[in-house]
Each structure stands twice: as C-alpha cells, then as structure tokens.
Amino acid sequence: MAHLRLTNSLSSPLPNKLVTFSSQSLILHRPFFFAKPKPLIRFARRNGPPLVLAAVGQAEPNRLPQTNAPQVLPGEEEDLPSKSQEQGSQLRNRVVFGLGIGISVGGVVLAGGWVFATALAAAVFTGAREYFELVRSHGITEGMTPPPRYVSRVCSVICALMPLFVMYRGHIDVSVTSAAFVLATALLLQRGSPRFAQLSSAIFGLFYCGYLPSFWVKLRCGLAAPALNTRIGATWPILLGGQAHWTVGLVATLITISSVIAADTFAFLGGKAFGRTPLTSISPKKTWEGTIIGFCGCIITSVVLSKVFSWPISLLSAIALGVLIFFGSVFGDLTESMIKRDAGVKDSGTLIPGHGGVLDRADSYLFTGALAYNLIKTMLPLYGV
C-alpha cells in the first residue's frame, strides 16, 4: 500500500484548486524505471480536510505491441497434439481396414458359390440391423412411428436369408412377396394403433437391405457361361477350378466392383482438387466437379477392364455398363445419405474402424448389382456376348 506524508497540516487552508500528486512524491511497491507514470490519486478540499475522490490511474509497464497471431488457451496446447494423433490414428485405421476389406472381398468373389452367398448374407444381416436402428433414431422417430423391435429383427433375418434362397433356388420374387405379406399382416394385427410409417419403413427395409443385395448372387453365380477369351482364365490353376472357373458372372462382378471403387475414388480426389459447386443438399460435400471426374473414371475403368478380360467384346457395351454402374453407385450413396441425414447421424454404425458401418461401405453397391445384372441379361446378348 502506498504511504503518503503531507507537509501541510490538515487544519491549514488549502486552495479550492485540485491538487495532483504524482508518483514521484509517493513511495510505491513498484520499480521506478517506468517512464512518466500516470497519477494515482487526487485530493480535493471541501470545507474540511482533503478527501480522496477517485483513483485516476496506475503505473503500468510498457506493453508489447499486439500481433494477429491466434491466442491459444491454456488447455489447448495439450489438445493440439492429441487431435493430430487422433486424425493420424483414424487415417491409419481407414487404410488398414480398407485394405483388409478389399482383400477379403476379392477372395470371396473369386471363391464364389456358397462362400460368396454366405458372406453376403452376413453382410446383409448386419446392414439390415443398422438400417432399422437408423429408422428408430431420434431424428426419424420425431415424424413417424417406427416398427416394433420384433418386426425389425424378423426383417433382418428375412433379408439375410434372401441371398441364400437365391443361391439355391435361383429366384426370389415369390419369396419377397410372401415375406412382405407376412410382415404386413404382423404389423396390422399388432396391439395399439398400426401406422403406415411402420409398414412403409419395414417394406422398404426388405427391398433395400435384402432384395437389392440378392442380385449380386445372381450376377456372380447365376451367369455361369464361361468367359472363354479371358487370358487370366487360360492360366488359372486347375486346383482352383481352371479356365471353367472364369465365368461371365465372375468377370462381370469384378468389373462392376472395380468400377464402383474407381467412381468413388475419382469423385473424392476430383472433389478435393476442383470441387466448387455443391451437387445436392442431401450430401453437401459432394460437388459437380467431383461427380463428373468420378463419371469419367468409372467409364475408363470399365473399358480398360473389358479389354483385360476380353469381355464384353463391344466397346459400346463396356461404356453402357460403366454408365449404368456409375449412376447406380451415386444414387445408392445419396439414398443412404438421405437416411442418415434424417436420422441425424454421421455413420450408420461403428463396426468398421475408420469407415463406420456396413451400410456406409456398401451403399454404392446396393443398386449397381441389380442394374448390372439386368443390363447383361437383357442388352448384352444383342451384341454377341
């Protein structure tokens, strides 16, 4: 505390003029090397002893000039390394698990038969569970009534059985119709007041998660005609099936999957480099520039692989296949993005580290299998394939 010694007695008259005491006449608990410190207090006389009116200023050290550098809060220094480490860990998980999924899917596709159908059934069951969890999320249930849990579980089991049924029976139309009838009956006879939203979401779940993926079994295992001109098939080991193992279905499946991967990859890289114009409000990160680059990459991949596998023979057929695959992958991705947007979630699940759920990885493939199969069955034979 500053101590003052006044030479004038308190009873002596002071002029009515305001008297200012500078810090030079004060004994401060501060260093004396500051240039021209501001006055500390002012005294005034009002018919009596001087009174302290107000604190005017305080001696302060010279401050450094402020810079435009962002200020980092005390707790943020530790958060910056942790955030970078977390991003690096997510990227590492994405790459590692992506390679693992790619190798596993490639082996399953090459194996074909019951291995392919069983693996697809497992993926369909997991994807169906994720779909019905999205339907029951808070963002969707605000505007509708979700189906009961037992109905969701039954739908998931039916969806998982569809690929196996196609594998051993060859068709699925009658079974899907029967499953939809049983499902509608169960919903209409439930306790309480049945809702149309329950029926529509459950029926769409059968179509989206069960019926559409079943076309991959038709594509891989149903097109059993041998691809005789395939060079890889000519050197394929006898123990792994020999040349007869390379059927039109295997070649078509490899071209379709590779074209979808190319479309997603080129669209992502093109959007990062040149993306300026948003494609749709459903998925704000997608741009027209990235979509066009992905379209070109998908067609180029389809044409190049058709030359590698010597199927399809016609260039026009390869281009048509690439175009159809691209539109199927884009609309499959946007459909799942619309569901997640209404649900208010970023990923459909957390099963695959760095990738999200099964639907997040398989959304681009849901429509492409059906479109590719129908194109091959209806159009490609006209070109001598």
UniProtKB/TrEMBL annotation:
Superkingdom field: Eukaryota
E.C. number: 2.7.7.41
Catalytic activity of the protein: a 1,2-diacyl-sn-glycero-3-phosphate + CTP + H(+) = a CDP-1,2-diacyl-sn-glycerol + diphosphate
MF annotations from Gene Ontology: phosphatidate cytidylyltransferase activity
Presence of the UniProt keyword Chloroplast in the record: no
Membrane keyword on record: yes
One GO biological process term: phospholipid biosynthetic process
Keyword list, A-Z: Lipid biosynthesis, Lipid metabolism, Membrane, Nucleotidyltransferase, Phospholipid biosynthesis, Phospholipid metabolism, Transferase, Transmembrane, Transmembrane helix
Pathways per UniProt: Lipid metabolism; Phospholipid metabolism; CDP-diacylglycerol biosynthesis; CDP-diacylglycerol from sn-glycerol 3-phosphate: step 3/3
Region (Disordered): 63-87
Residues spanning the membrane: 95-125, 170-189, 196-216, 246-269, 290-309, 315-334
PANTHER family: PHOSPHATIDATE CYTIDYLYLTRANSFERASE 4, CHLOROPLASTIC, PHOSPHATIDATE CYTIDYLYLTRANSFERASE 5, CHLOROPLASTIC
This protein's name: phosphatidate cytidylyltransferase
Organism of derivation: Phaseolus vulgaris
